[in-house]
């Protein structure tokens, strides 16, 4: 009789424990599920942003009158988020950058980097994909930057593992309320597939080389990454990697990318940079849009790195930035991200400037950068 009572009591306890666990799991799921959110319309329509992923820079961006951040290179790097295939994905840095931005109502353009050392080293002939150990984004040379890029920089070897990582990352920040970052208020809906793959052409720069493969390989990377992004978030917008400039050296790389007809349907937004080079009077929008038209491409254009530092005089640089912004917008640029927060030319040498692009007469003071940028970011 005692044994029977004891068995009955045990069964009751097991039933209570099972019910308790079920309630606990349901409760936990309800706590970690967010409400669906979208980028607020007043942020999404804003045209201006800045580079920067260092802690505290979001406030500077806001003070300068902009509403967008583009962390560069940023923490959305496979290598720094996952230490090995099938290992836990770490979101500490990406959560921080998104949280800091949303706290002051900034949107985020995220750059996805497809490099993980453990994956790259397993590729055949891995050594040919190495960049210089003096590259400025190597961990030992990043000079105080918060982020880095690994030594090997080529397409993933294990595409399945890479695509799985992309899907998990995009899902965390898409704002659909499922598996989102806890407390997500302003989702990430714009994803850039790497950065300046054309910089290696025609030969690598020992100081800076983002990608060690050719245009055909980048086309494959764009297509596969875009498919992974869209499978996680059909509403996401994909940016092709920004062209490093507007001259033939850089644009010829993209001609190679566009030879793969499939690329056309796998990016939503075209992307060009201007580091005070080439057609700086339009932030290279003019030659870049001509390239797009030559392929029959009707894409929105963003300038995700913009500067016009053509003089040692900050007033000239501020004025040229103002004029370049006006022309880029007139030519159809939808968003412009500035690279620096001041107008002092910190380069060792002035960039070459064609005669047809003579320096402007100063009309805006560059002595107070915040005030100058506030004027620039009021442009329509």
Assembly category: single chain
* Overall average residue pLDDT: 89
Question: How many strands in all?
Answer: 8
Order of helices and strands: HHEHEHHEHHEHEHEHEHEH
Task: Quickly name the level 1 CATH class of the largest domain.
Answer: Alpha Beta
What is the CA-CA span between the terminal residues? 87 Å
Spatial strand sequence of the major β-sheet: 5-4-3-2-1-8-7-6
SS strand fraction: 5-15%
CATH topology of the largest domain: TIM Barrel
> What would CATH call the homologous superfamily of the largest domain?
Glycosidases
- Which CATH architecture of the largest domain is right? Alpha-Beta Barrel
Q: Radius of gyration in whole Å, from Cα?
A: 24 Å
Task: Describe it.
The protein has 380 residues and is an alpha/beta fold. The chain folds into 2 domains: 1-32; 37-376, Glycosidases (TIM Barrel, Alpha-Beta Barrel). The protein has helices at residues 2-32, 41-44, 57-63, 78-81, 92-103, 117-120, 159-173, 215-232, 248-258, 285-294, 314-330, 369-376; strands at residues 48-51, 68-70, 107-112, 190-193, 237-239, 269-275, 300-307, 333-338. Helix 10 links the parallel strand 6 (269-275) and strand 7 (300-307). The chain is globular, with a radius of gyration of 24 Å.
């Amino acid at each position: 009789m005692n044994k029977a009572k004891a068995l009955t009591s045990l069964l009751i306890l097991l039933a209570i424990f099972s019910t308790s666990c079920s309630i606990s799991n349901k409760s936990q799921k309800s706590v970690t599920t967010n409400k669906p959110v979208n980028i607020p319309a007043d942020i999404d329509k804003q045209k201006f942003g800045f580079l920067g992923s260092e802690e505290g820079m979001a406030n500077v961006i806001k003070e300068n009158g902009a509403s967008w951040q583009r962390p560069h290179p940023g923490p959305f790097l496979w290598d720094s988020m996952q230490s090995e295939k099938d290992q836990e994905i770490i979101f500490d840095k990406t959560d921080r950058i998104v949280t800091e931005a949303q706290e002051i109502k900034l949107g985020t353009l995220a750059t996805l980097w497809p490099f993980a050392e453990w994956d790259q080293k397993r590729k055949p002939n891995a050594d040919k994909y190495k960049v210089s150990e003096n590259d400025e984004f190597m961990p030992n040379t990043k000079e105080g930057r918060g982020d880095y890029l690994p030594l090997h920089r080529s397409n993933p070897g294990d595409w399945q593992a890479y695509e799985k990582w992309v899907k998990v990352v995009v899902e965390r920040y898409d704002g659909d309320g499922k598996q989102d970052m806890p407390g997500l208020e302003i989702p990430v809906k714009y994803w850039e597939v790497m950065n300046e793959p054309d910089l290696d052409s025609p030969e690598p720069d020992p100081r800076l080389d983002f990608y060690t493969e050719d245009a055909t390989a980048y086309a494959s990377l764009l297509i596969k990454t875009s498919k992974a992004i869209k499978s996680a978030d059909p509403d996401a917008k994909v940016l092709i990697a920004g062209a490093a400039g507007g001259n033939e050296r850089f644009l010829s790389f993209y001609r190679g990318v566009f030879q793969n007809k499939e690329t056309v349907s796998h990016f939503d937004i075209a992307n060009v940079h201007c580091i005070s080079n080439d057609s700086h009077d339009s932030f290279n929008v003019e030659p870049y849009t001509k390239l797009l038209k030559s392929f029959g491409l009707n894409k929105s254009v963003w300038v995700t790195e913009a500067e016009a530092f053509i003089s040692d005089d900050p007033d000239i640089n501020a004025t040229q930035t103002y004029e370049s912004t006006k022309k880029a917008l007139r030519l159809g640029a939808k968003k412009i991200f500035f690279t620096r927060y001041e107008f002092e030319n910190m380069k060792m040498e002035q960039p070459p400037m064609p005669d047809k692009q003579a320096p402007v007469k100063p009309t805006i003071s560059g002595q107070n950068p915040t005030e100058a940028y506030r004027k620039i970011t009021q442009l329509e």
